[in-house]
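Case study.
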Amino acid sequence: MADPMRIRANMTGDKVEVKVLMAHEMETGLRKDASGNAIPAHFIRNVTVTHGGKTVLSAQWGTSVSRNPFLHFRFKGGKPGEKVTITWLDNRGEKRTDEAVIAGG
Amino acid sequence: MDAKRREVLKTGGGVLALAAAGVIRPGDALGQEWNKAAFDTKSVAETVKALGASGSTPSSGVEITAPDIAENGAVVPIAVESKLPRTEAIAILIEKNPNTLSAEFAIPSGTDPFVSTRVKMAETSNIYALVVADGKYFHAVKEIKVTIGGCGG
Amino acid sequence: MGIQRVLAGVLAATLPCFSPAQQDTLKEIERYRQLLQESNPAELYEARGAEHWTRKRGPKSSSLERCDLGLGPGVVKGAYVRLPRYFADTDRVQDLESRLVTCMVALQGFAPEEARRNPFSGTGAPMITTDPFSGVGQRSVMTDLVAWIASESRGMTIAPPMSHPKERLAYQAGERLFYFRAGPYDFGCITCHGEEGKRIRLQNLPKMTNAKDAQRAFGTWPAYRVSEGELRSMQWRMWECIRQMRFPELEFASDASIALIVFLANRAEGGTFDAPAIKR
Amino acid sequence: MKAKMPSKTILALALSGICVAGCATRPSDSETERTVAEMIKTSFRTRGQATVARLSQDDAQALCSKHAGELPKGVSDGIEKAQQATIRYPSSGKLMGDWREGERIAQSGVGKQFTDAPNRPAGGSCYNCHQLSKQELSFGTIGPSLYQFGKQRGASEAIQKYTYGKIYNAEAFSACSNMPRFGHNGVLTEEQITHLVALLLDPDSPVNR
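After joint prediction, the assembly is written out as follows.
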């Protein structure tokens, strides 16, 4: 089971500032282990952020996003107390959804 | 140098509609599509083409914030901001990585044309920020040097 | 493995000397380190560690909540900055990790070798890889616990006790070990950590006998190492230095490892603890 | 550093909390020595090529550990003399190899770690501690800058011999140097050392341009 994300969603002015950390290997598929066997690629391919039923960011990632990925962005229309929901989906079909409550500025 | 970059980004391919390219779609509700063809590309020109453009124009409206030198290539902080009206998407390309395309973000209206993340760089390379604004492609480029560190390697 | 040359061929031959470029290099490296501070994946380890503390594990299906880290059973706040210390029940000086082994054995019923197994995330050493992104994701309960327990001392003053004769003996032994030179490279800890303001490549080296340097060094471990994509503990820091010194392997939670940590913690006394940190 | 206070005083100090590290209640040197010897025996284990035998010090290592920080002149002279006698020059008499090969060796920091393949040649780790060329900005500063080393000294036979000897056994010239005794300890081969000599002395090498 994948670990929960660490999500921070804070009001800055009229915008919601979202910072998220995801626990994921982001394995490139290009590396070999000590005995010379290739380590299979394992990485997040899709990230979707929604607020009030509307997608506020969607991303497609390759293997060169760093391990334990970090993402930071801003959107308008959110208020303190409302929820931001983030979902990631990796190349093995594993999925994780977490949500955070928007904090005041 | 700019002229050369413009040259690099001219792919000579026909102009494809964004939807047809199936790549950058702000409305993609679940974001479950993944553009394998684009992520498999091995040069900036190929990536731009795979993302549905025949070329891209350098623009001062695209800003990259990143260090000039990375102490380690496994984590290179990079932020991209677009000042161009109607920015729909932002992509991060790393020229000398085994696969050029690192990430792309669809930016719906209401979301700032800004993303900040961290990428891996295999070696010193140019990083391109490619922006789709009002259906056209623009880019900025920045070289980031990756240093060798530690004592046992 | 790929050797990346910084600025290879970029500098104009007309530059009078290396120093202006070198100044820029150091300034940009500093900026890189600043940018890293914006977000630290150590948080992910801390969150897991807090869960491991209360989770029932082992043959006795018990949590670690009654574990005594030196400030009384179950007290975690401030425990890290008061370690290593002497524990009467084991009649030993112990650092955090060796103490956690004791608790896993006593409270959870693990065999000692089981409690000591898999002490570091990943393989514990950079892997032989075809690309420069080393490390491999293998979880370590020990590492997670260390991350969380250390985080519960953030902002506090480093104050290891030094009143018990065994604490003093460990300090003296740690100091001797610090100066001990051996192996095919003639290295000792002193080789890299004996002078102020030195570097290996571009990495600054703390002079461990200098209080300010020792405080910064001790106060920023554990740390998330971006070069490995893993959180690393002080035990790992000792293990890794010893590996690079070309010594045989330092046993996890061994007396020598603890003595070295006692020496460092005491050199760092009075400093502010600011870990888990994030580093190259 | 032996405890000289009466035990009652020690107890009183300890109880009143005055006694901190460095006060007169340190364990005796012999007790510390015994403890360290025991730790060296029990806290390390052989892994790969890094065997526990590596912890048995030779005379120079033992003396340098003992006199860390304050090396008496007599001891340092003795070490240098003994180490001087260990230097073996190549039988071919050729001390200058290929600087390009030397640059590769200088860049590499691998070798002799338990994670290194034992049959793979070691590097010289030179850039870890020295500046050598203008191009490589990622260099260490534990050792002095060697940029323009040959330009300042020339490449006479005497300089070649000195340079080779210094890499072969640094302690022959500077007792308890931080620099490994690359030749004496079998880290680098004679041929590898000649490549490093060329890197330092060849006028075409990046060190001298």
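Observations recorded in class. The helical segments of chain B are 2-9, 18-21, 36-39, 44-50. Residues 2-146 of chain B form a domain with the Immunoglobulin-like fold (CATH 2.60.40.2470). We will return to this complex in the next lecture.
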